[in-house]
What does this fold into?
Amino acid sequence: MASSAFVLDPSVARAEWSRISTQLRLDAQTSLKDRNVHGQFATPPSLADDIAAYALTLHDTPTVRFLEPACGTGAFYSALLRQCDPSRIDSAIGVESDPRFADASRNLWGPLGLQVQEADFTRWISQNRSQASLVLANPPYARHHHIPPTRKRELCSRATAHLGLHVSGLSGLYVHFLLLTHQALAPGAISAWLVPSEFMDVNYGRAIREYLTRHVLLHRIHMFDPADVQFADALVSSAVVFFANRSPSPHRVVEFTYGGSISCPRDRRALLARELHPEGKWIDHFREPKTRPLRSTAVLGDYFRVQRGIATGANKFFILPRPEAETRGFRRDHLTPILPSPRYVDSVTIESDAEGWPSVPRQLALLDASVPLSVLRTIDPQLATYFDTAEPALRAGYLVRQRSPWYRQEQRKPSPFMCTYMGRGNAESHPFRFILNRSRAVGTNVYLMLYPTPLLQAYIDSSPKAYQRIHEALVSLTPDDLRSGGRVYGGGLHKIEPKELMRLGAEAISALDPATLAPRRSKQMDLLP
It folds into this structure.
Protein backbone atom coordinates (compact mmCIF):
# COMPACT_ATOMS: atom_id res chain seq x y z
CA MET A 1 0.00 0.00 0.00
CA ALA A 2 1.60 3.24 -1.10
CA SER A 3 1.65 6.09 1.37
CA SER A 4 -0.94 8.79 0.83
CA ALA A 5 -0.06 12.46 0.54
CA PHE A 6 0.55 14.21 3.85
CA VAL A 7 2.20 17.37 5.13
CA LEU A 8 5.74 16.74 6.37
CA ASP A 9 6.21 17.80 9.98
CA PRO A 10 8.96 20.47 10.07
CA SER A 11 10.40 18.77 13.15
CA VAL A 12 11.24 15.72 10.99
CA ALA A 13 13.28 17.85 8.60
CA ARG A 14 15.11 19.52 11.50
CA ALA A 15 15.85 16.16 13.12
CA GLU A 16 17.19 14.79 9.82
CA TRP A 17 19.59 17.72 9.38
CA SER A 18 20.78 17.16 12.93
CA ARG A 19 21.08 13.41 12.28
CA ILE A 20 23.36 13.93 9.28
CA SER A 21 25.73 16.21 11.22
CA THR A 22 25.69 13.80 14.18
CA GLN A 23 26.51 10.89 11.86
CA LEU A 24 29.50 12.71 10.42
CA ARG A 25 30.74 13.59 13.89
CA LEU A 26 30.45 10.04 15.22
CA ASP A 27 32.04 8.54 12.10
CA ALA A 28 35.01 10.87 12.52
CA GLN A 29 35.57 9.49 16.02
CA THR A 30 36.25 5.97 14.69
CA SER A 31 38.99 4.87 12.32
CA LEU A 32 38.02 3.36 8.98
CA LYS A 33 39.71 0.12 10.05
CA ASP A 34 37.53 -0.14 13.18
CA ARG A 35 34.41 0.70 11.19
CA ASN A 36 35.22 -2.13 8.78
CA VAL A 37 35.76 -4.50 11.70
CA HIS A 38 32.35 -3.63 13.16
CA GLY A 39 30.65 -3.19 9.78
CA GLN A 40 29.30 0.29 10.62
CA PHE A 41 28.32 2.11 7.43
CA ALA A 42 25.46 4.60 7.52
CA THR A 43 22.72 4.45 4.89
CA PRO A 44 22.80 7.54 2.63
CA PRO A 45 19.57 9.58 3.07
CA SER A 46 18.51 9.35 -0.57
CA LEU A 47 18.95 5.58 -0.55
CA ALA A 48 17.02 5.24 2.72
CA ASP A 49 14.18 7.25 1.12
CA ASP A 50 14.21 5.05 -1.99
CA ILE A 51 14.11 1.83 0.05
CA ALA A 52 11.37 3.05 2.40
CA ALA A 53 9.21 4.34 -0.45
CA TYR A 54 9.33 1.06 -2.37
CA ALA A 55 8.80 -1.08 0.74
CA LEU A 56 5.68 0.92 1.57
CA THR A 57 4.19 0.12 -1.84
CA LEU A 58 4.30 -3.55 -0.78
CA HIS A 59 2.93 -2.93 2.73
CA ASP A 60 -0.80 -3.76 2.57
CA THR A 61 -1.96 -3.20 6.15
CA PRO A 62 -3.27 0.23 7.28
CA THR A 63 -0.98 0.52 10.30
CA VAL A 64 2.79 0.14 10.47
CA ARG A 65 4.67 -1.65 13.23
CA PHE A 66 8.24 -0.70 12.41
CA LEU A 67 11.51 -2.43 13.32
CA GLU A 68 15.05 -1.28 12.48
CA PRO A 69 17.50 -3.99 13.67
CA ALA A 70 20.68 -1.86 13.52
CA CYS A 71 19.33 1.66 13.69
CA GLY A 72 22.54 3.67 14.05
CA THR A 73 21.42 7.30 14.05
CA GLY A 74 18.00 6.33 12.69
CA ALA A 75 18.36 6.77 8.93
CA PHE A 76 15.49 4.43 8.08
CA TYR A 77 13.12 5.77 10.71
CA SER A 78 13.81 9.25 9.38
CA ALA A 79 13.03 8.02 5.85
CA LEU A 80 9.84 6.33 7.08
CA LEU A 81 8.62 9.61 8.57
CA ARG A 82 9.27 11.37 5.26
CA GLN A 83 7.53 8.69 3.17
CA CYS A 84 4.61 7.71 5.40
CA ASP A 85 1.90 9.59 7.27
CA PRO A 86 3.02 9.33 10.93
CA SER A 87 -0.58 8.62 11.94
CA ARG A 88 -0.20 5.18 10.32
CA ILE A 89 2.74 4.25 12.58
CA ASP A 90 1.39 2.17 15.44
CA SER A 91 4.81 1.38 16.95
CA ALA A 92 8.48 1.84 16.08
CA ILE A 93 11.51 0.08 17.58
CA GLY A 94 15.17 0.66 16.79
CA VAL A 95 17.90 -1.59 18.21
CA GLU A 96 21.52 -0.42 18.39
CA SER A 97 24.50 -1.94 20.24
CA ASP A 98 26.85 1.06 20.07
CA PRO A 99 25.93 3.36 22.99
CA ARG A 100 27.03 6.49 21.11
CA PHE A 101 24.65 5.81 18.23
CA ALA A 102 21.88 4.56 20.53
CA ASP A 103 22.00 7.80 22.53
CA ALA A 104 22.02 9.91 19.38
CA SER A 105 19.09 8.04 17.88
CA ARG A 106 17.12 8.22 21.13
CA ASN A 107 17.68 11.98 21.40
CA LEU A 108 16.81 12.62 17.75
CA TRP A 109 13.84 10.32 17.24
CA GLY A 110 12.53 9.47 20.69
CA PRO A 111 10.35 12.60 20.72
CA LEU A 112 9.00 11.51 17.31
CA GLY A 113 7.99 8.01 18.37
CA LEU A 114 11.03 5.72 18.03
CA GLN A 115 11.73 3.43 20.99
CA VAL A 116 15.48 2.88 20.97
CA GLN A 117 16.83 -0.28 22.60
CA GLU A 118 20.55 -0.26 23.40
CA ALA A 119 21.34 -3.93 22.89
CA ASP A 120 23.04 -6.55 20.76
CA PHE A 121 20.23 -7.27 18.30
CA THR A 122 21.15 -10.95 17.95
CA ARG A 123 20.52 -11.36 21.70
CA TRP A 124 17.63 -8.90 21.97
CA ILE A 125 15.64 -10.70 19.28
CA SER A 126 15.55 -13.93 21.30
CA GLN A 127 13.67 -12.12 24.10
CA ASN A 128 11.47 -9.90 21.94
CA ARG A 129 7.85 -10.87 21.41
CA SER A 130 6.66 -7.92 19.30
CA GLN A 131 5.62 -8.62 15.72
CA ALA A 132 6.81 -6.11 13.12
CA SER A 133 4.87 -5.41 9.93
CA LEU A 134 7.75 -3.47 8.34
CA VAL A 135 11.49 -4.08 8.68
CA LEU A 136 13.99 -1.70 7.07
CA ALA A 137 17.54 -2.79 7.75
CA ASN A 138 21.16 -2.02 7.00
CA PRO A 139 22.81 -4.70 9.20
CA PRO A 140 26.50 -4.68 10.20
CA TYR A 141 28.81 -5.82 7.40
CA ALA A 142 31.26 -7.38 9.88
CA ARG A 143 33.18 -10.35 8.45
CA HIS A 144 33.09 -13.75 10.12
CA HIS A 145 36.67 -13.55 11.42
CA HIS A 146 35.61 -10.59 13.59
CA ILE A 147 32.99 -12.72 15.36
CA PRO A 148 34.33 -14.72 18.36
CA PRO A 149 34.23 -18.48 17.60
CA THR A 150 31.87 -19.36 20.46
CA ARG A 151 29.50 -16.56 19.45
CA LYS A 152 29.66 -17.71 15.85
CA ARG A 153 28.70 -21.27 16.75
CA GLU A 154 25.81 -20.00 18.87
CA LEU A 155 24.45 -17.83 16.05
CA CYS A 156 24.69 -20.64 13.51
CA SER A 157 22.90 -23.09 15.78
CA ARG A 158 20.08 -20.63 16.46
CA ALA A 159 19.35 -20.21 12.76
CA THR A 160 19.26 -23.98 12.45
CA ALA A 161 16.90 -24.27 15.41
CA HIS A 162 14.49 -21.57 14.18
CA LEU A 163 14.53 -22.18 10.43
CA GLY A 164 16.15 -25.56 9.86
CA LEU A 165 18.89 -23.92 7.79
CA HIS A 166 22.56 -24.83 7.81
CA VAL A 167 24.53 -21.61 8.25
CA SER A 168 28.23 -21.64 7.40
CA GLY A 169 30.75 -20.48 9.97
CA LEU A 170 32.12 -18.21 7.23
CA SER A 171 28.93 -16.12 7.25
CA GLY A 172 29.21 -12.42 7.95
CA LEU A 173 27.17 -10.87 10.76
CA TYR A 174 24.56 -9.56 8.31
CA VAL A 175 23.54 -13.16 7.49
CA HIS A 176 22.68 -13.82 11.13
CA PHE A 177 20.80 -10.52 11.46
CA LEU A 178 18.62 -11.30 8.46
CA LEU A 179 17.81 -14.88 9.43
CA LEU A 180 17.21 -14.22 13.13
CA THR A 181 14.81 -11.36 12.39
CA HIS A 182 12.35 -13.85 10.93
CA GLN A 183 11.04 -14.63 14.41
CA ALA A 184 9.97 -10.98 14.84
CA LEU A 185 7.92 -10.81 11.62
CA ALA A 186 4.14 -10.62 11.70
CA PRO A 187 2.29 -12.63 9.02
CA GLY A 188 2.57 -10.73 5.74
CA ALA A 189 5.28 -8.40 7.10
CA ILE A 190 7.41 -6.61 4.51
CA SER A 191 11.20 -6.61 4.88
CA ALA A 192 13.82 -4.62 3.00
CA TRP A 193 17.48 -5.48 3.63
CA LEU A 194 20.46 -3.54 2.36
CA VAL A 195 23.20 -6.20 2.26
CA PRO A 196 26.42 -7.05 0.40
CA SER A 197 25.56 -8.40 -3.05
CA GLU A 198 28.08 -11.21 -2.52
CA PHE A 199 25.38 -13.30 -0.82
CA MET A 200 24.20 -14.17 -4.34
CA ASP A 201 27.64 -15.59 -5.24
CA VAL A 202 29.45 -17.04 -2.27
CA ASN A 203 28.90 -20.48 -0.77
CA TYR A 204 27.99 -19.12 2.65
CA GLY A 205 25.24 -17.04 1.01
CA ARG A 206 23.32 -20.25 0.34
CA ALA A 207 21.54 -19.94 3.71
CA ILE A 208 20.05 -16.59 2.63
CA ARG A 209 19.20 -17.91 -0.83
CA GLU A 210 17.45 -20.89 0.71
CA TYR A 211 15.58 -18.65 3.14
CA LEU A 212 14.39 -16.39 0.32
CA THR A 213 13.12 -19.28 -1.79
CA ARG A 214 11.68 -21.62 0.86
CA HIS A 215 10.58 -19.53 3.83
CA VAL A 216 9.29 -16.19 2.50
CA LEU A 217 7.79 -14.66 -0.64
CA LEU A 218 10.55 -12.87 -2.51
CA HIS A 219 9.41 -9.73 -4.37
CA ARG A 220 12.55 -8.11 -5.73
CA ILE A 221 16.33 -7.87 -5.58
CA HIS A 222 17.96 -4.67 -6.72
CA MET A 223 21.72 -4.82 -7.30
CA PHE A 224 23.68 -1.61 -7.56
CA ASP A 225 26.35 -1.23 -10.21
CA PRO A 226 29.60 -2.26 -8.45
CA ALA A 227 31.30 0.81 -9.89
CA ASP A 228 28.77 2.94 -7.99
CA VAL A 229 29.65 2.12 -4.37
CA GLN A 230 26.73 2.98 -2.09
CA PHE A 231 29.07 3.60 0.84
CA ALA A 232 32.14 5.62 -0.07
CA ASP A 233 34.08 4.04 2.79
CA ALA A 234 32.91 0.42 2.48
CA LEU A 235 34.63 -2.27 0.41
CA VAL A 236 31.55 -4.09 -0.83
CA SER A 237 28.96 -3.68 -3.54
CA SER A 238 25.39 -3.69 -2.31
CA ALA A 239 21.96 -5.07 -3.07
CA VAL A 240 18.53 -4.52 -1.56
CA VAL A 241 16.26 -7.51 -0.99
CA PHE A 242 12.48 -7.05 -0.62
CA PHE A 243 10.30 -9.92 0.62
CA ALA A 244 7.08 -10.67 2.49
CA ASN A 245 6.54 -13.07 5.35
CA ARG A 246 4.20 -15.26 3.30
CA SER A 247 4.39 -18.78 1.98
CA PRO A 248 6.56 -18.94 -1.14
CA SER A 249 4.95 -19.69 -4.48
CA PRO A 250 6.84 -21.24 -7.44
CA HIS A 251 4.66 -19.19 -9.77
CA ARG A 252 5.51 -15.87 -8.11
CA VAL A 253 7.21 -13.37 -10.42
CA VAL A 254 10.44 -12.04 -8.90
CA GLU A 255 12.05 -8.85 -10.19
CA PHE A 256 15.81 -8.58 -10.63
CA THR A 257 16.77 -4.95 -11.23
CA TYR A 258 20.25 -3.57 -11.77
CA GLY A 259 22.03 -0.22 -11.71
CA GLY A 260 20.60 3.24 -11.36
CA SER A 261 18.30 3.54 -8.36
CA ILE A 262 15.52 1.42 -6.88
CA SER A 263 12.91 3.80 -8.23
CA CYS A 264 14.61 4.08 -11.62
CA PRO A 265 16.77 1.01 -12.35
CA ARG A 266 18.91 0.78 -15.47
CA ASP A 267 17.92 -2.84 -16.25
CA ARG A 268 14.98 -4.98 -15.23
CA ARG A 269 14.26 -8.71 -15.53
CA ALA A 270 11.38 -10.85 -14.31
CA LEU A 271 11.74 -14.52 -13.35
CA LEU A 272 9.45 -17.11 -11.86
CA ALA A 273 10.40 -18.11 -8.33
CA ARG A 274 10.82 -21.71 -9.46
CA GLU A 275 13.82 -20.58 -11.56
CA LEU A 276 15.70 -19.63 -8.40
CA HIS A 277 17.79 -22.34 -6.78
CA PRO A 278 19.71 -21.88 -3.51
CA GLU A 279 22.75 -23.74 -4.85
CA GLY A 280 23.04 -21.52 -7.93
CA LYS A 281 24.71 -18.17 -8.53
CA TRP A 282 22.01 -15.53 -8.56
CA ILE A 283 24.28 -12.92 -10.08
CA ASP A 284 23.59 -14.60 -13.42
CA HIS A 285 19.93 -13.62 -13.16
CA PHE A 286 20.84 -9.97 -13.67
CA ARG A 287 21.94 -10.78 -17.23
CA GLU A 288 19.63 -11.19 -20.18
CA PRO A 289 19.45 -14.82 -21.34
CA LYS A 290 21.36 -14.07 -24.53
CA THR A 291 24.32 -12.70 -22.58
CA ARG A 292 24.36 -15.20 -19.74
CA PRO A 293 27.34 -17.58 -19.92
CA LEU A 294 26.42 -20.96 -21.35
CA ARG A 295 27.81 -24.26 -20.08
CA SER A 296 30.80 -24.92 -22.28
CA THR A 297 31.73 -28.23 -23.84
CA ALA A 298 35.23 -27.53 -22.54
CA VAL A 299 36.09 -25.72 -19.31
CA LEU A 300 39.43 -24.72 -17.82
CA GLY A 301 39.05 -27.46 -15.23
CA ASP A 302 39.52 -29.98 -18.04
CA TYR A 303 43.01 -28.63 -18.63
CA PHE A 304 44.20 -27.21 -15.32
CA ARG A 305 44.29 -28.01 -11.64
CA VAL A 306 44.06 -24.60 -9.98
CA GLN A 307 45.43 -23.75 -6.53
CA ARG A 308 45.77 -20.52 -4.59
CA GLY A 309 49.32 -19.41 -4.04
CA ILE A 310 51.14 -19.63 -0.73
CA ALA A 311 49.72 -17.96 2.38
CA THR A 312 52.65 -17.45 4.78
CA GLY A 313 50.73 -15.80 7.61
CA ALA A 314 53.42 -13.10 7.84
CA ASN A 315 54.82 -12.05 4.47
CA LYS A 316 57.06 -9.32 5.87
CA PHE A 317 58.86 -11.87 8.01
CA PHE A 318 58.98 -14.90 5.74
CA ILE A 319 59.58 -13.11 2.42
CA LEU A 320 62.76 -11.07 2.00
CA PRO A 321 64.44 -9.40 -0.96
CA ARG A 322 66.75 -11.97 -2.53
CA PRO A 323 69.92 -9.85 -2.02
CA GLU A 324 69.14 -9.49 1.71
CA ALA A 325 68.48 -13.22 2.14
CA GLU A 326 71.75 -14.10 0.40
CA THR A 327 73.72 -11.46 2.31
CA ARG A 328 72.45 -12.94 5.59
CA GLY A 329 74.03 -16.23 4.53
CA PHE A 330 70.92 -18.40 4.49
CA ARG A 331 71.37 -21.71 2.68
CA ARG A 332 70.22 -21.57 -0.94
CA ASP A 333 68.00 -24.62 -0.58
CA HIS A 334 66.03 -22.77 2.11
CA LEU A 335 65.22 -19.94 -0.32
CA THR A 336 62.31 -20.38 -2.73
CA PRO A 337 61.85 -17.83 -5.52
CA ILE A 338 58.48 -16.14 -5.07
CA LEU A 339 56.78 -13.50 -7.20
CA PRO A 340 56.18 -10.00 -5.90
CA SER A 341 52.71 -8.46 -5.85
CA PRO A 342 51.12 -8.25 -9.34
CA ARG A 343 51.53 -4.47 -9.27
CA TYR A 344 55.30 -5.06 -9.51
CA VAL A 345 54.95 -7.48 -12.44
CA ASP A 346 54.48 -5.51 -15.65
CA SER A 347 54.93 -8.30 -18.19
CA VAL A 348 52.52 -11.13 -18.98
CA THR A 349 55.56 -13.40 -19.50
CA ILE A 350 58.07 -13.96 -16.71
CA GLU A 351 61.41 -15.07 -18.02
CA SER A 352 64.01 -16.88 -15.94
CA ASP A 353 67.64 -16.13 -15.13
CA ALA A 354 70.28 -18.85 -15.20
CA GLU A 355 69.36 -20.06 -11.69
CA GLY A 356 65.63 -20.14 -12.30
CA TRP A 357 64.85 -16.90 -10.48
CA PRO A 358 62.23 -14.72 -12.18
CA SER A 359 63.54 -11.87 -14.29
CA VAL A 360 61.61 -9.17 -12.47
CA PRO A 361 62.97 -5.93 -10.99
CA ARG A 362 62.12 -7.03 -7.43
CA GLN A 363 63.35 -10.58 -6.79
CA LEU A 364 62.01 -12.05 -3.55
CA ALA A 365 62.93 -15.14 -1.53
CA LEU A 366 60.53 -17.22 0.56
CA LEU A 367 62.19 -18.63 3.69
CA ASP A 368 61.25 -22.28 4.08
CA ALA A 369 62.70 -25.14 6.10
CA SER A 370 61.18 -28.43 7.20
CA VAL A 371 63.61 -29.62 9.86
CA PRO A 372 63.23 -28.95 13.61
CA LEU A 373 64.88 -25.84 14.96
CA SER A 374 67.48 -27.91 16.82
CA VAL A 375 68.63 -29.42 13.53
CA LEU A 376 68.39 -26.08 11.72
CA ARG A 377 70.83 -24.55 14.19
CA THR A 378 73.42 -27.03 12.92
CA ILE A 379 72.77 -27.00 9.17
CA ASP A 380 71.74 -23.31 8.74
CA PRO A 381 72.55 -21.39 11.93
CA GLN A 382 71.98 -17.99 10.31
CA LEU A 383 68.40 -18.91 9.39
CA ALA A 384 67.78 -20.41 12.84
CA THR A 385 68.99 -17.18 14.43
CA TYR A 386 66.67 -15.18 12.17
CA PHE A 387 63.70 -17.36 13.15
CA ASP A 388 64.56 -16.69 16.81
CA THR A 389 63.73 -13.02 16.22
CA ALA A 390 60.06 -13.79 15.47
CA GLU A 391 57.70 -11.89 17.77
CA PRO A 392 55.35 -13.97 19.97
CA ALA A 393 52.36 -12.40 18.17
CA LEU A 394 53.68 -13.73 14.86
CA ARG A 395 54.14 -17.22 16.31
CA ALA A 396 50.56 -17.07 17.65
CA GLY A 397 49.06 -16.18 14.26
CA TYR A 398 46.42 -18.60 12.98
CA LEU A 399 48.34 -19.91 9.95
CA VAL A 400 51.71 -20.00 11.67
CA ARG A 401 50.56 -21.96 14.71
CA GLN A 402 48.96 -24.62 12.48
CA ARG A 403 52.33 -25.59 11.00
CA SER A 404 55.02 -27.95 12.29
CA PRO A 405 57.60 -26.64 12.47
CA TRP A 406 55.96 -23.20 12.58
CA TYR A 407 58.23 -21.78 9.87
CA ARG A 408 57.53 -24.52 7.30
CA GLN A 409 55.60 -23.07 4.35
CA GLU A 410 52.86 -24.53 2.20
CA GLN A 411 54.42 -26.59 -0.55
CA ARG A 412 53.79 -25.50 -4.14
CA LYS A 413 55.64 -26.49 -7.27
CA PRO A 414 56.22 -23.72 -9.80
CA SER A 415 53.31 -23.52 -12.23
CA PRO A 416 53.78 -22.55 -15.88
CA PHE A 417 50.65 -20.39 -15.82
CA MET A 418 49.32 -18.01 -13.21
CA CYS A 419 46.28 -15.79 -12.87
CA THR A 420 45.93 -12.77 -10.65
CA TYR A 421 43.33 -13.41 -7.94
CA MET A 422 41.75 -9.96 -7.97
CA GLY A 423 41.65 -6.86 -10.12
CA ARG A 424 39.55 -4.10 -11.56
CA GLY A 425 38.18 -3.86 -15.06
CA ASN A 426 35.38 -2.59 -17.25
CA ALA A 427 33.59 -3.74 -20.37
CA GLU A 428 36.78 -3.37 -22.41
CA SER A 429 39.52 -4.33 -19.95
CA HIS A 430 40.27 -7.62 -18.18
CA PRO A 431 39.87 -7.73 -14.40
CA PHE A 432 42.45 -10.55 -14.17
CA ARG A 433 45.79 -11.24 -15.86
CA PHE A 434 47.10 -14.58 -17.10
CA ILE A 435 50.87 -14.86 -16.77
CA LEU A 436 53.23 -17.29 -18.50
CA ASN A 437 55.80 -18.26 -15.88
CA ARG A 438 59.10 -19.63 -17.25
CA SER A 439 60.88 -19.38 -13.89
CA ARG A 440 61.02 -21.48 -10.71
CA ALA A 441 59.02 -18.86 -8.82
CA VAL A 442 55.83 -19.70 -6.98
CA GLY A 443 53.17 -17.13 -6.08
CA THR A 444 51.67 -15.81 -2.89
CA ASN A 445 47.93 -16.12 -2.35
CA VAL A 446 47.22 -13.10 -4.54
CA TYR A 447 47.87 -15.44 -7.46
CA LEU A 448 46.10 -18.54 -8.71
CA MET A 449 48.51 -21.23 -9.93
CA LEU A 450 47.43 -23.29 -12.95
CA TYR A 451 48.95 -26.77 -13.26
CA PRO A 452 48.32 -28.69 -16.53
CA THR A 453 46.25 -31.86 -16.28
CA PRO A 454 47.60 -35.01 -18.00
CA LEU A 455 45.39 -34.17 -20.98
CA LEU A 456 47.02 -30.77 -21.46
CA GLN A 457 50.47 -32.03 -20.52
CA ALA A 458 50.33 -34.52 -23.39
CA TYR A 459 49.75 -31.61 -25.78
CA ILE A 460 52.60 -29.63 -24.17
CA ASP A 461 54.97 -32.56 -24.59
CA SER A 462 54.10 -32.86 -28.26
CA SER A 463 54.58 -29.23 -29.27
CA PRO A 464 57.61 -26.99 -28.62
CA LYS A 465 55.41 -23.87 -28.86
CA ALA A 466 52.64 -25.24 -26.67
CA TYR A 467 53.23 -22.98 -23.67
CA GLN A 468 53.00 -19.83 -25.76
CA ARG A 469 49.89 -21.03 -27.60
CA ILE A 470 48.13 -22.00 -24.36
CA HIS A 471 48.97 -18.63 -22.87
CA GLU A 472 47.55 -16.86 -25.90
CA ALA A 473 44.38 -18.94 -25.57
CA LEU A 474 44.02 -17.93 -21.91
CA VAL A 475 44.58 -14.27 -22.73
CA SER A 476 41.89 -14.50 -25.42
CA LEU A 477 39.18 -14.95 -22.75
CA THR A 478 37.03 -11.84 -22.90
CA PRO A 479 36.43 -9.48 -19.97
CA ASP A 480 32.82 -10.73 -19.84
CA ASP A 481 34.04 -14.35 -19.68
CA LEU A 482 36.22 -13.55 -16.68
CA ARG A 483 33.68 -11.39 -14.86
CA SER A 484 30.97 -14.03 -15.26
CA GLY A 485 33.08 -16.54 -13.37
CA GLY A 486 34.10 -14.51 -10.33
CA ARG A 487 32.46 -12.17 -7.87
CA VAL A 488 32.48 -8.40 -7.60
CA TYR A 489 32.96 -6.03 -4.67
CA GLY A 490 32.66 -2.29 -4.13
CA GLY A 491 34.22 0.05 -6.67
CA GLY A 492 34.35 -2.67 -9.33
CA LEU A 493 36.89 -4.92 -7.57
CA HIS A 494 36.63 -8.46 -8.97
CA LYS A 495 37.83 -11.69 -7.34
CA ILE A 496 37.92 -15.22 -8.67
CA GLU A 497 38.48 -18.43 -6.70
CA PRO A 498 40.12 -21.61 -8.03
CA LYS A 499 36.85 -23.50 -8.61
CA GLU A 500 35.29 -20.44 -10.25
CA LEU A 501 38.23 -20.19 -12.65
CA MET A 502 37.97 -23.91 -13.44
CA ARG A 503 34.35 -23.46 -14.51
CA LEU A 504 35.16 -20.89 -17.22
CA GLY A 505 34.78 -21.91 -20.85
CA ALA A 506 37.94 -23.13 -22.62
CA GLU A 507 37.01 -23.47 -26.28
CA ALA A 508 40.15 -21.54 -27.25
CA ILE A 509 42.32 -24.23 -25.66
CA SER A 510 40.38 -27.19 -27.07
CA ALA A 511 40.66 -25.56 -30.52
CA LEU A 512 44.49 -25.70 -30.37
CA ASP A 513 44.31 -29.39 -31.21
CA PRO A 514 40.71 -30.68 -31.32
CA ALA A 515 41.76 -34.31 -31.71
CA THR A 516 44.18 -34.32 -28.76
CA LEU A 517 42.41 -31.84 -26.49
CA ALA A 518 38.82 -33.08 -26.66
CA PRO A 519 37.72 -32.84 -23.00
CA ARG A 520 37.33 -36.02 -21.02
CA ARG A 521 35.68 -34.39 -18.05
CA SER A 522 35.47 -36.33 -14.83
CA LYS A 523 32.29 -36.54 -12.78
CA GLN A 524 34.09 -34.46 -10.16
CA MET A 525 34.47 -31.63 -12.69
CA ASP A 526 30.75 -31.72 -13.51
CA LEU A 527 29.92 -31.45 -9.82
CA LEU A 528 31.99 -28.33 -9.12
CA PRO A 529 29.75 -26.06 -7.03
